[in-house]
Amino acid sequence: MNSSQISPSTSQKKHLSRDQSLLIYGLRDAGKSHDEIASQLKISLCQVGHALRRGKVTPRKRNGRLPIFSSDDVDEIENFVRSSLMNRKMTYLELATGPFRYLGVSERIIQSELRKRGYRRHPAHKKPPVSEQTKTIRKEWAEAHVYWTVESWISILWTDETETWVKDSEHSGEWITRKNTTSTVLVKQ
Question: Percent of the chain, pLDDT > 90?
Answer without folding.
Answer: 30
